[in-house]
């Protein structure tokens, strides 16, 4: 009887040890998994707004670019030297962009007399193949339709995907970069926020409140 | 003595190392090499009668906090979710029966109602396979958003081993 009690005690002790080891192992792997998740989750799965990490372009000169507008004219960021510019990347398939654009139209008309302009850049980010002529034609038609519907009074440039690398990859739309009169990015924004927040960033780019 | 043997047997059966599926894989919803907004879950293998139409339920999962347009979004500017099979795969997609989406409203604009999928969803694919073993890379095209932003449209592989006898 004593022997059985001893064996039972040892067995329970060993089982408890295994249970603890199993729990500790699970916790360790859970923490490791969380670290891996944090390191490997693509930026596209991170909620936007101003909660994300600051853009690497912040407080740096805005990368120059030359793109065609919807009429085929070449437009460069450098053409707007001395003006505060909001570079707004959008896409026709993006519902938040559709909500944001009327705000931008209104803000552009309000601040234009102070030396402000918006460059709307369509970045469809489409995974269409280069030889998919029908697909690309549909994209272009959708851009023109969007511009007409929204009555966008500012230059609308196409093929923003070609400069996406310079602007951090453009993993999400809408993405905006607020450039001051010296050509420096003073604020950025990913995702839909509010008209007042955009206005505040435009004022910052104009140097208001300095 | 017998008790000691049983005790030893019980101890040996305790799973120490295998504590279930990895937490990382649990979060991602199954084995995968890269996190995507949409992941194909299963089946990996399907056995069908050669030359006969068969319905196969394909299961997908959308990342937490994200949604994708349904196959029939409410506005023509939105990109619908669509399944396709490559033409020369030995398996024909005769029809795809998509689930009905749920209504989704952007917080910034309650008047705009979207029709989306979120969480897990299933597409019932009606297929006909030629005799043989077919490693098919079907495609799912979708466009995902969260409440404030949208990701570019994407096409993912839907890999299946279709055995037609």
Structure keywords:
heterodimer, A: 210 residues, B: 165 residues, mainly beta, Immunoglobulin-like, four-stranded mixed β-sheet, 12 strands, 11% helix
Task: Quickly describe the structure.
The complex is a heterodimer of chains A (210) and B (165). Chain A is α/β, with parallel strands linked by helices.
Mean pLDDT of chain A: 85
- The helix/strand order of chain B is HHEEEEEEEEEEEE
Q: What separation lies between the terminal Cα atoms of chain A?
A: 88 Å
What's the CATH H-level homologous superfamily of the largest domain in chain A?
Glutaredoxin
Mean pLDDT of chain B equals: 83
| Shape category of chain A | elongated
CATH class of the largest domain in chain A: Alpha Beta
Number of strands of chain B: 12
CATH architecture of the largest domain in chain A: 3-Layer(aba) Sandwich
What's the level 1 CATH class of chain B? Mainly Beta
The largest sheet of chain A, given as strand count, sense and whether it forms a barrel, is:
5 strands, mixed
What is the percent of helical residues of chain A?
40-55%
The parts of chain B where pLDDT drops under 50 for at least 5 residues are 7-34
Word description of this protein:
The complex is a heterodimer of chains A (210) and B (165). Chain A is of the alpha/beta class. Chain A folds into 2 domains: 2-40; 66-206, Glutaredoxin. Chain A contains 4 helices and 7 strands, in the order αβββαβαβββα. Chain A has helices at 2-40, 95-111, 133-150, 195-206; strands at residues 66-68, 74-76, 84-90, 116-122, 156-157, 175-179, 185-190. In chain A, the strands form 2 sheets. Chain A has a 5-stranded mixed sheet with strand order 5-4-3-6-7, covered by helices on one side. Chain A has a two-stranded antiparallel ribbon with strand order 1-2. In chain A, helix 2 (95-111) packs across helix 4. Chain A starts with a helix and ends with a helix. The model of chain A is unreliable at 35-49 (pLDDT under 50). With 165 residues, chain B is mostly beta strands. Chain B has one domain: Immunoglobulin-like. The chains are: A alpha/beta (210), B mainly beta (165).
